[in-house]
């Protein structure tokens, strides 16, 4: 697999699906189980910076990965979000679509997910920067119940989702 970057972070081991223009990867600190990201392979900060071909591939990949995530995580719905620019809450200057599987009873049926995306919980860039290189465990990031996952956990999920993606092709 080629080296895959999310902003200035190398995320190759987290990737579970590749197209010529797009990558899908597991999230370091998912808001809910199955929360994944879809990114253009070219590091580009804003949606408007993408070519027409990249936009088309990004959204077709979001649709394809979304169907798989919904099936695998037994979701009845999905949140699909793009924070386009720092003032919109984008924490890594690289276009990325969040795909978050939802169920009727999660988060008390509220729209709390949007606050989570905009707050510290959704700050992917901060969590990636705090990830030590070459160490087996991540440092404790916050006192909440949602902790950063280990590299091994993300690799295992990426491998499992790669197999699930093959079932949908």
Short description:
By secondary structure, the protein is α+β, with helices and mostly antiparallel strands.
Provide the low-confidence segments as ranges.
133-143
Would you tell me the structural class of the helices and strands?
alpha+beta
Strand content: 15-25%
Question: How far is the first residue's CA from the last residue's CA?
Answer: 19 Å
Principal-axis shape equals globular
Whole-angstrom Rg: 15 Å
- What is the average per-residue confidence, as pLDDT, rounded to a whole number? 84
Tell me which oligomeric state these chains represent. single chain
Number of strands: 7
In DSSP terms (H or I, runs of 4 or more residues), the helix count works out at 4
- Helical content class: 25-40%
Describe this structure in words.
This protein has 169 residues and is α+β, with helices and mostly antiparallel strands. 30% of the residues lie in helices and 18% in strands. The chain contains four helices and seven strands; from the N terminus they run E-E-E-E-E-H-E-E-H-H-H. It has helices at 52-72, 112-118, 124-129, 151-167; strands at 5-6, 9-10, 15-18, 22-26, 36-40, 77-82, 97-102. It has a five-stranded antiparallel beta sheet. The chain has a two-stranded antiparallel ribbon with strand order 1-2. The model is unreliable at 133-143 (pLDDT under 50).
């Amino acid at each position: 697999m080629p080296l895959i970057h999310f902003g200035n972070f190398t995320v190759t081991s987290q990737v579970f699906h590749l197209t010529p223009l797009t990558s899908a990867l597991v999230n370091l600190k998912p808001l809910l189980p199955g929360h994944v990201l879809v990114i253009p392979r070219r590091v580009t900060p804003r949606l408007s910076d993408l070519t027409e071909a990249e936009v088309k591939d990004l959204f077709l990949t979001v649709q394809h990965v979304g169907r798989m995530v919904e099936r695998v995580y037994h979701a009845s719905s999905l949140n699909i979000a793009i924070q386009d620019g720092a003032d919109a809450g984008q924490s890594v200057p690289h276009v990325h679509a969040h795909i978050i599987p939802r169920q009727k009873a999660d988060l008390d049926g509220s729209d709390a997910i949007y606050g989570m995306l905009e707050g510290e919980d959704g700050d992917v860039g901060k969590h990636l920067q705090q990830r030590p290189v070459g160490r087996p465990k991540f440092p404790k990031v916050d006192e909440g119940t949602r902790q950063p996952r280990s590299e091994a956990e993300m690799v295992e999920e990426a491998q499992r989702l790669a197999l699930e993606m093959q079932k949908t092709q």
